[in-house]
Amino acid sequence: MMANNNREPSSLLNRIIFRSVQPTDIPRCYQIESASYPEDEAASKSTLQYRQHHAAAFFRCAFLVGDSINPGSGSPGGTTSTSSSISYQGRSVNLGATLSGTIIGFICSTRCKSLTAEAMKVHDAAGKILAIHSVVIEEQYRNCGVASAMLQDYVAAMERLTNKGTLKVKMEKIVLLAKKNLLAFYIKNGFMATRVSPVVHGKEKWFELERKFVSEESDAKTHECYILDSFADVEKQGSGNPAAVVLLNGPPEAEQFMIKNNDSDTDNSLDEIDNGEIQDRGVEWMATVAKEFNQSETAFIWPLPHKIKLVNDTVRSKQKNAPPPTYAIRYYTRTGVEVDLCGHATLAAASVLFHPKKIEDPKQNHKVSFLAKNDVDLQAELLLPPANSQPTTPLSSSNKASRVAMKFPWKNVTPLSSERDGKEEILDMMSRAFSNAANSGQSGFAQYVLHIGTTDVKEDMLIELSEEGFDLLQGVKVDYGALEGCKGYSRGVIICCVASAMPSVDFRSRFFGPKVGIDEDPVTGSAHCSLGPYFGDKLGKTVVVGRQESDRGGLVECILKPDEGRVCIVGTAVMTVSGQLSIAI
């Protein structure tokens, strides 16, 4: 779909009728197919005949009506009979009348149970996947909006068929393969790019895209949403840190762009869909949604197909070596404040993408990359249990729980060693914030303080106490205003200690973030970017486990990779809510 012409799109579209392909249309469809695709990609005439014979309901065309309406029949591909009364150029065409014209494009598909080269060779009437083989427009009618109009008609027809038709097995989604230069076109028309395809078809590389069917009960403008308990303790229901996840097709302001601006078939740059910067409307919408969920964090994710690294044909043919899909991710607190990084929301987002209903082969699709604000690259991997292992709790045996490892940036802790650094101010803050604790005066607190430091760019304040001092704060009412008033940090206060009497736990912590709308966070994954390295160095370990001791509580494992400048944070996420978000953008 590369050619340009000077046709007027509106007048052309007014003369097009979309209908099913008949057996007599195959010669014309083959003519368009063979002229539009390279020889090693074009379907043969016999293949098109097979698809029309076995999957006729999924083979539709764009028929361009000529200048007159004539009764009777004509040459194959040159006429179309109306199956019901229609309106054409303001005139009513009677049932049984024939319109002269020609087919200028078509879409053909077959059903299958998996998106593999073998499965797509035949039509499986019980398959829940509708695989599109061809979306093609005759060269002289390209870049006039015809392909978008034809694709939208096709999707609508397939939705009617699966919702109101007589299919014994309902279809779940439409899938297709596309080259990189056409990704923008399909995304604008409501498809989501998922990964580089392992299917080899011709010389060029292909990407997989999909679009789920909208049921009669749902709203086409809704978005999938979830709530998960991140860093949950599988031994305890209701543990971990709840986070909401909203799955989008693209940046929030681009959702309207995709719906309203699909009248062109040009190969626009994907930068029009995602340029890394979210427009004001999208920012406001995400803040509104986060307030509605009222969770400590809400993550918004959408695919970045042009961030997928292309690999050579040899590697691409081996699915296990294919690069993981890449998603943009943004985080908002319950007060609508955006934060740069959130560990537990990232864990929740990865768990959503790793859910069994999202991936066809869990053994292969177990990695994903996230691109956070400021181009921070986050990597997550699903940790599969050993083949012969037995679940020990109801939660660990549920497919709603998944154990995920995430690679986060390493954060060092810079010590405060003098009054000039603000150490006295920190001690005063602690004495006022925990004034009801025993020995809570500034001098009293000082005896329990082992270390005070700040993370990179003074984002968090880390205060290590003796275990006795840490225990004194349990159950004490906190003055969050005193914590918020301290100028020595921008995000949160981490209070921590070595865990000397807990089997399999190396340190204990609490996290307070009143400056970003979180009084006390149940479990804070991102805080372990500094907690892990800090206690790893203190204890001489490369793997440390922390228990965050909020009311809900949770467990975080930290695998230290200093050579990579990364901390691998491991935790379990349990899905508790799934549904559809109806707040319009």
Question: Topology of this protein?
Answer:
Blueprint: H1 9-13, E1 16-20, H2 26-36, H3 45-54, E2 59-70, E3 79-81, E4 86-88, E5 91-93, E6 98-112, E7 129-137, H4 146-164, E8 173-178, H5 183-188, E9 192-196, E10 207-212, E11 223-230, E12 241-247, H6 252-260, H7 280-293, E13 297-303, H8 313-316, E14 326-332, E15 338-339, H9 343-353, E16 367-371, E17 377-382, H10 394-397, E18 401-409, E19 414-415, H11 423-433, H12 442-446, E20 449-454, E21 460-465, H13 467-472, H14 480-484, E22 492-498, E23 507-513, E24 518-521, H15 528-539, E25 543-548, E26 554-561, E27 566-581
Parallel strand pairs: 7-8, 12-13, 14-16, 21-22, 23-25
Antiparallel strand pairs: 1-2, 2-6, 3-6, 4-5, 6-7, 8-10, 9-10, 11-12, 11-27, 13-14, 14-15, 16-17, 17-18, 18-27, 19-20, 20-21, 22-23, 23-24, 25-26, 26-27
Helix pairs in contact: 2-3
How much helicity do the residues have?
Answer: 10-25%
What form results from the Cα inertia axes?
elongated
The helix/strand class is: alpha+beta
Give the low-confidence spans. 1-6, 68-76, 82-96, 256-276, 308-320, 391-397
Average pLDDT value? 81
What profile does the largest beta sheet have?
A: 8 strands, mixed
Radius of gyration, in angstroms, nearest whole number: 29 Å
* Strand segment count: 27
Q: How far is the N terminus from the C terminus?
A: 31 Å
Separate helix tally: 15
State which percent range the strand residues make up.
Answer: 25-35%
